[in-house]
Amino acid sequence: MELEELLNSFDRTTANVEKLAAVWNRASGFIPRDVARGSHPEYDNLSRAWLDLLPGLPPIDGWTITEGLPDIDALGQGFIDYREIGEPPFALYEEGERPGKLLDEYRYRLARARRRAVRDRLDALTMTIDTSLGTILCEIDPDSPAKIDHPDVVVVSTALAEIDRLFGDSAQRLGRWGNFRRHLRFSEGHDWRDIATLDWPSIKTDIDAITLAESDPLPVPAIDLGEAASGELAGVATLALPWERLDDDGFERLLFDLLRSYTEHENVQWLMRTRAPDRGRDLSMERALKDGTGGVRRERVIVQAKHWRARSVGVKEIATTVAQCEQWQPPAVRGLIIATSGRFSADAVDWTEKHNERAALPLIELWPESKLETLLAERPHLAAAHGLR
Question: Structural domains in the chain?
Answer without folding.
Answer: 3-112 (no CATH), 119-212 (no CATH), 243-385 (3.40.1350.10)
